[in-house]
Design goal:
Two copies of one chain form a homodimer.
Chain A (H helix, E strand, L loop, with lengths): L2 H7 L7 H10 L6 E2 H11 L5 H13 L4 E3 L7 E3 L7 E5 L5 E4 L18 E12 L1 H4 L2
Parallel strand pairs in A: 4-6
Antiparallel strand pairs in A: 1-3, 2-3, 4-5
The first copy, chain A, binds a DNA duplex through helix 4.
Chain lengths: 138, 138
DNA sequence: ATCCTACAATGGACTTTGTCTAAGTCAAGC
DNA sequence: GCTTGACTTAGACAAAGTCCATTGTAGGAT
């Protein structure tokens, strides 16, 4: 059973077939689906689910902090259910493969006060880009 | 006279009124305009310039390495003429204001081999998010 | 078990951002 | 001052996402 689903249920989320399906589709590690991919997989399980519902549901999961929105390429947003553990992303510039990574240290400490322009910084997003082993050997 | 324009001229770029206007619009520090904003400002100087030309011209500047493409929000790409000096971005989550910042240290060294999954990493992109002084006092 | 009602889902129109193409225009070399 | 290939144009098209009026339903109340 889906961890994600459990967590959502525990928050008094009204449970519907559509929401269940979206949560099931998203469950797992190194999952970074676009909204359209989520929709495609959801349709396989529940043919009448609409695109708008998928967008709404993903948006709510993000608001609840149970799913993270990631923009690794400049096209569609991707949704990452691994919201517990802070992590960053490593992206293959050729095939677009994405891995979750856990750098050591805190990038926040790398930004001196003089470079903060009076901002209160709450979050840092890091994206590493390169070539994955598969594309490198091709 | 525009620095950017000088550099482009020096590369044997065929100079046209449209390209000149786009380069002029982009010149400066902490400039991070969307393609549409560039178009709007370009139209003010040269009413008959088309959207496609603005997109083409920006794309060429990016290919030439004279302008950097930035995706700080999840909407339109932004164009940053400060391509000389490596830098990262600091974004206000409320008003969207963007500043160029220069963190100390190299985020690449923070990623242990065990977290590289065999990738050859070529680039790191860091986005700091927070609240700017103006929004904080509102 | 059934009813209510607020919340959720639907689908289709609309918006935003960006790309493509065919035809016309023009900068720069000769 | 020609010629030519590169540049520009307008508008059609596409992808990703939002909005809204209508219909459906989960889950508490009876």
């Amino acid at each position: 059973m889906s961890d994600l689903l459990e967590r959502l249920r525990g928050r008094g989320w009204r449970m519907t077939a559509q929401r269940r399906v979206v949560a099931e589709v998203l469950d797992g590690d190194h999952i970074h689906l676009t909204a359209d991919e989520v929709h495609a997989r959801a349709v396989a399980k529940l043919p009448e689910i609409s695109r708008a519902t998928v967008y709404n549901t993903l948006g709510e999961m993000v608001s609840l902090g149970e799913v993270i929105e990631v923009s690794t390429d400049r096209r569609a947003k991707r949704y990452d259910p691994n919201a517990h553990r802070p992590h960053q992303h490593l992206v293959c510039a050729q095939c677009g493969a994405i891995r979750d990574v856990h750098p050591v240290g805190d990038p926040l400490t790398d930004l001196p006060d003089s470079e903060r322009f009076g901002f209160t910084i709450s979050d840092v997003e890091v994206t590493y880009r390169g070539t994955c082993p598969h594309c490198a050997s091709a």
